[in-house]
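Researcher: I'd like a structural prediction for the single chain below. Treat it as a standalone chain; there are no partners to consider.
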Amino acid sequence: MFKTLIWQKDRMLMDDLVFRLQHHLSDDWELADRCFIFFKTQALVNQYQAFFSAHREFHPRNVFELGLWDGGSLAFWFENLRPAKQIGIDIQQRSNSQYLQNYIKDRKLADRLKVYWGIDQSDAQKIGAIVSHEFDGPLDLVIDDASHFYEPTKTSFECLFPLLKPGGFYLIEDWAWELWNEFKSPDHPMVNETGLTGLVAQLVKATGVSRSLIRSITIYRGFTAVERGDAVLNSSTFRLLDHITETA
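Model: Treating it as a single chain, here is the predicted structure.
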């Protein structure tokens, strides 16, 4: 499913697209804004390649992405997954970069690839309305690279997981950030935030308790993949903790 990627010191190249690596920003850059900003590392992308290589039969038709930064991940996933439709949301109050606008226009993707800026991932009502308006049929894949905080991430999960088809995947990126040394400094702006290790622990428990909620859970250092089971779920009433307190 993944195209050939060319990794250089400050960029990743995919066909004719340029992704400037956020982790390696410097003043030594000759392309101005003719690029995507890409907030992923090669190590993380390698983990995604390993995951999707293990699920070669999985070809998502409807994809929903939370957290876009500059929009580079939107194009990255679209190019590699080739869904029928992909919608992205982000809390930032901004518009598509010129590079993203050109990408969508030049490839005639206006009906297949859309962005909703200014949407908080904890606003379940707005997210549900976007999914209902944009997609014909259930979701196949959700990618959450948004706040990385417990409460808003859980809210998004409880809204969107019921909208996945059985066998679909819900990916939660950077679930372990609160365990990493770079986030433990008392001066770090996220040091007092509640991360996602507790949520992943709850998902593991739910996998063990319920016979139909979660078909499988796969954990990499950079993301967790939750496979939807066959349970009948209501997006407006689904609460993860209800499926942990049940008896097996």
